[in-house]
Amino acid sequence: MYRAIRIHGYGGPEVLQLETLPTPVPGRGEILIRQEAIGVNYIDIYFRTGLYKVPALPAILGMEGAGVVMAAGAGVTDFEPGDRVAYPTALGGYGECRTIAADRVVPLPPDIPFDIAAGCMLRGLTAHMLLREVREVRAGETILVHAAAGGVGLLLCQWARHLGVRVIGVVSTEEKGELARQNGAAEILVGHDNLAARVRKLTDGAMVPVVYDSVGKDTFVASLDCLAPRGLMVSYGNASGEVTGVSVGMLATRGSLYLTRPGLTTYLAQRSALLAGSKELFDLIIQGVLSVRIGQRFALADAGAAQTALESRGTTGSTILLP
Length: 323
Prior knowledge:
Oligomer: single chain
Helix content: 25-40%
Radius of gyration: 20 Å
Strand content: 25-35%
Number of strands: 16
Largest sheet: 7 strands, mixed
Low-confidence stretches: none
CATH topology of the largest domain: Quinone Oxidoreductase, Chain A, domain 1
Mean pLDDT: 96
Structural class: alpha/beta
Number of helices: 10
Order of helices and strands: EEEHEEEEEHEHEHEHEHEHEHHEHE
CATH architecture of the largest domain: Alpha-Beta Complex
């Protein structure tokens, strides 16, 4: 038997129920993992509320974790019991153990602790996708990063600095601004008021070629207004609510802008992409280029409190559960 957090319907944090369940048996192509640490992400909240639908109810939430292989199903050749592993995009993570398709898992280097892996797999590979795949940023460019003190935001600041890119970080408080600055943001803007005017001043009127916006509804139009002609708006989160009712004419009148809503699952659909992105991420952590900040740690039983903290937008860095 093992403990897991399940939902039987959509709603607030109260729908997250700690239950004792039979230990799963890995099927063909699957492995069973004893989880040492589990990531908590906004996508978990989207699934809990029903903004994103789970395949079936009841369901175990959680997309990210790290641990040790307990058993391997038929046909699995890449992993065996005792191997250290991590994964970024597989529903079912809020539990002491879990089964998962082996091709969605990567080997975890011995130099990277389980908690760091659980705090960086989804967020770090999201940063990789944004900076290296959605649009490959170039040295000397200036970019705008919302929620710059969050789990993804801090990694974006560090990684962009490593690539020679100037980051303007947008945060909600002075304290978060100082954290983002310590992690590579060259300039800090607190709040979203008059955002375009402040970006115009920092860029001598040039504006920025790309905006990375995880906030959503509250900042969408302001983000568009920060872009240079033919700039790219990357909307990759809905922390303030889903962006709806967008007129494509807004893109034309603001300078023939581009808009994308990338999903990490699509970018990692091929195992080769998952392995390559993970290797680059792990290498930069081991080299000390990237530092993963675990800002909040909760017990598995306190998953509701963890999600509430994340929703409050009062967290910094990554949030994890410890089984």
